[in-house]
Design brief:
Blueprint (H helix, E strand, L loop, with lengths): L13 H22 L22 H26 L3 H10 L4
Helix pairs in contact: 1-2
Length: 100
């Protein structure tokens, strides 16, 4: 039986990947965090608005909350990934992204 070695990294464009991650961390992640009412510096619990709502807008507000919870899962997953990075990677992230 012959052993076949496959290099899964041969097709990865590292520069393009780095640029996409940079855009995600600089622009998209802060925007997503704001959309779900979260602060990237304090991820302990979601912030819910205490503003009153009109009864005829209940469905719209329901959709906004469901969307907010979905976005919150994305933000949590990204932040958990950063938390699980090596110490050197965390230092790089903190040096490049002020919200880390």
């Amino acid at each position: 039986m012959e052993l076949i070695v496959v290099n899964i990294w041969s097709d990865v464009d590292f520069d393009k990947t780095a640029n996409r991650v940079d855009k995600l961390l600089k622009y998209k992640l802060p925007r997503l965090a704001r959309r779900c009412g979260r602060s990237l510096t304090d991820l302990s619990s979601p912030q819910l608005s205490s503003a009153s709502s009109h009864s005829n807008r209940t469905d719209g507000q329901e959709r906004m909350m469901v969307n907010s919870f979905s976005i919150e899962k994305v933000v949590d997953a990204i932040c958990q990934t950063i938390i699980n990075c090596s110490d050197n990677s965390k230092l790089i992230l903190i040096g490049n992204y002020a919200w880390c």
